[in-house]
Amino acid sequence: MKTLFKYLGGDKNIWVIALLLGVISVVSVFSFIPILVKVKGLSYAYLFFKHFILLVLGFGLMYGVHRIPTKVFSKLSKVLFYLSIVLLVLTMLVGESVNGADRWLKIPFVPFSFQTSDFAKLSLIIYLARQLVKRKGEFQDLKVVARYIILPIGLTIFLILPSNLSTAVLVGLISFVMLILAKFPWKWIWMSIGGAVGAFLLLLTIAKYQPEVLPRVETWRLRIVRMFSDENTLDPTENMQINNALTAIKNGAFTFSNGTLHGPELPGNGVLKHYIAEAYADFYFAALIEEGGLPTAIFVIMLYMWLFFRFIKTALAAEDRFMTYVVLGIAVMIMLQVLVNMMVSTKLMPVTGQNMPLLSMGGTSAWFTCIAFGIVIGISRETKKSEKPEEALGNEIA
Predict the structure, then answer these.
(1) Quick one: pLDDT at residue 357?
(2) How far apart are CA 239 and CA 246, in angstroms?
(3) Distance CA 377, CA 62 (A)
(4) Number of Cβ within a 10 Å radius of residue 347
(5) CA distances in angstroms from 95 to 7, 229, 361, listed in the order given
(6) Residue environment code for 115-142, b if the CB has 16+ CB neighbours within 10 A, otherwise e
(7) Using 50, 70 and 90 to split pLDDT, how confident is the model at 391?
(8) How far apart are alpha carbons 184 and 196 in whole angstroms?
(9) Segment holding 231, helix H or strand E
(10) Where are the domains of the chain?
(11) For 242-265, what is the mean pLDDT?
């Protein structure tokens, strides 16, 4: 095992966590896809092997990316950002519609599509990390920070917003955290937040009279209304997804009935996964609890917390600020997705679509998660390499 980790390089803890999440994903997703089999008319074998192959390819990407020097990402940060903007525009113009939203872009010559917002999130993190380091001495110059920092964030959010409000909000939160960590002036942060809120309210006002501007506004409104409305006043079919998710969580609890202890449904025996439309993705956490119970949920949460701790440790040990900001941005991105998936499943926030990183059946979205992991592991590998000469010198002096 030591030889394997020595060959892989980087933080072995992150490798272990990634592999554990991958194994859990392969087993759980196979159990959570009956509704997809029913709706799409596809076989279990096809969906299982598709997910398995995509995940294996994702780990291949993780390994390949972690071998790329971090300075390459720094130099390509602008190119990656501009490419993400082009892809987001193309998605708005010719993207594939899923649930009434144009979020997917077809990959030429292969039978796959991908969410351009996944690429945009990661590209913006890399670009923003580079600019926060490069423009550090010019933070008081509004023209500079507006051109290189505020406007790129706003443009990314603006292009994602019409089709995916939750991802647009996540991009804003990731950027907000990165700006604070880089000690970006609060006056510009508050100005940006005020401008964003004003622009969003203006769009909502325009959409009220021209619905085609933001066709999903009514969907957003209904989800918020259902979130805070009394269940007795709602049509059960309108709130079926979240009601089934909550019932699934209840089924996963340990209870006493007639002197008998009843536990989780156990893997493969879940009932509600047949009725939750996104049990393998957006409501993954609910399906996980139904079949694995609270202990499994706690184990998965602890894995993500362990991952977050290793990311933070990697960020603090990084050689330069660019590396630190990139790792912190990725850490926030991963953990926000985890929190949203759990909060949606437990009705702590309105229904929205965010996968559990490396666990949900996300298709190509898992690739971008693997790429993000690869970048962090690569940074930890470079950090360890730079420490070795110093350790050797210390041994010689001793």
Answers:
(1) 92
(2) 11
(3) 8
(4) 17
(5) 41, 34, 21
(6) bbbbbbbbbbbbbbbbbbbebeeebeee
(7) very low
(8) 17
(9) none
(10) 2-397
(11) 70
* Of 325, 302, 303, the residue nearest 315 (C-alpha): 325
- Residue 327: partners with Cβ closer than 8 Å, 6 or more residues away: 311, 312, 314, 315, 318, 375, 376, 379
Helix (H) or strand (E) holding 171: helix 165-181
Tokens of 105: 């872009």
Determine phi and psi for 183, rounding to 5 degrees.
60, 40
Element (DSSP H or E) covering residue 182: none
Phi/psi of residue 96, nearest 5 degrees: -80, 140
Residue 390: predicted pLDDT: 46
What tokens appear for 214 in the block?
A: 């933001």
Rounded Cα–Cα distance for residues 31 and 92 (Å) = 34
Q: CB within 8 A of 127, min separation 6: which ones?
A: 77, 78, 80, 81, 152
Residue 32 has pLDDT above 70, yes or no: yes
- The least confident of 11-25, 182-196, 225-239, 283-297 is 225-239
Entry field: residues in the chain = 398
Token pair in block for residue 9: 């390089």
Q: Are 98 and 282 in contact (CB under 8 A)?
A: no
Segment (H or E) for 113? strand 113-115
> Which residue is associated with the tokens 């694995």?
292
pTM of the model: 0.88
Structure tokens at 19: 């592999």
Per the listing, tokens 């990661």 go with: 122
